[in-house]
Amino acid sequence: MKAQAPRVPLSRERVLRAAVRVADEGGIEALTMRRLADELGAEAMSLYYHVAKKDDILDGVVDLIASEINETVGQLAGPSAGAAWKAAVRRRILAAREVLLRHPWAPAVFETRAAASPAILRYYDELLGLMRDGGFSYDQAHHALHALGSRAIGFSQELFTPTSGAAGDVDQATMDMMAAQFPHLAGMLADIVHDDPASTLGWCDDQEEFEFGLDLILDGLERVRAG
Predict the structure, then answer these.
(1) What is the 3-state secondary structure (H, E, C) of 6-18?
(2) What is the pTM of this model?
(3) Is pLDDT at 86 greater than 50 in this prediction?
C-alpha cells in the first residue's frame, strides 16, 4: 500500500493564502469559513485557532496583497532624484496596479479596512521616499498623497456604479429614461467604451482612465515641486 503524504498542518499564513485563492476564484462574496475550510480540507472550527473571525481574515488578506505589492515594486529600478521622481512614482503605482489586477476583488476590501497594516505603511513610506528624492517637502508630499488618493496604491474609487455593471449593458429603456432626467450622464454613458475589460478594476476604473487621472495628477505635482 502506498504511503500517504504527511498532512500539512494549518497555520495563519496557510489559511490566509487559501482565502486569497478562494477570493481570486469566486470574488470576496465566495469567502466564507465553510468554503475556506473546504479549500484547506479541514473542519471549519479548526480555522478559529488561526483567524478569529472573517474580519480578521480580511485584515490578513489585505496584508498579504500589500506584501505582494511590496515584493513587486521592490524589483523596480531606476533613478528618482530631481525630475526623475515622476517616472519612478508612476512605475511604482502601475506595478502595484498589476498586482491588484491579479486580485480584482482586493480594492473593495482595501477600502473597508479601518487600520493600515505594516505592509501598507511600508508601501506608502517608500512612495514618500521617492517624492523626497525628487525634492518634495513633507508638506508637499502630504498634499500629493491626498491628491492621489487610492490611485497611490493602484486603483481609483468609483464615483458611482450603475446596477447593470457596464455602460454597454444599459438597455435602451434605461438610457431613454436617463436621457430625459439626466441628459449629460446619459450622453456620457452612451459615449464611453472600455476596450480592455481585463484592465478594469471596477465599472469605470480601466487602465486608460486610471493612467489618464494618474498622469494629470503627477503633471500637476511636478509643477508644484518645480515651483
Answers:
(1) CCCCCCHHHHHHH
(2) 0.85
(3) yes
